[in-house]
Fold:
Amino acid sequence: MKKTKDYGTAWRILRPSSITDQIFIKAQRIRTLEETGINKVGDGIIGEYIGIVNYCVIAMMQLESSLETPLEMNVEEVSSFYDQKIKETYELMMDKNHDYGEAWRDMRISSLTDLILMKLLRVKQIEDNSGKTLASEGVKANYQDMLNYAVFALIKLDVK
Structure:
């Protein structure tokens, strides 16, 4: 919300494919940092995972916004919309945690990064196919999974 106060809703101009590419850049940078340990820019892995969370929410918001939705939204509207997407994704995470027995707790952070990258490649393919799928759960479900993987990584990194 701080960035919304600073920049407004400039992100509303982005097409879903551009948001997917922004998430890809962040996930690829995390993987590079994990593999090399060399950070020349300053922002670390934690900031990149937080960015993935936020861009996934932005992507879901864009998917549900119509052409009639104004580009500029006030902070309260953005906050409410953001909270709605977080709540939906949290509920999905709780359901999956129940069914999968919280297996993520035994995973390596690098595996969570790889899963985010895999989901991104799936989303890119769906976008390149103009949204047509035969068996996929769709783009939103992939964004939700990426968001949850990023949260799991932040938990494992002990971010409070």
The chain has one domain: 2-156. Residues 75-100 form the longest helix (26 residues).
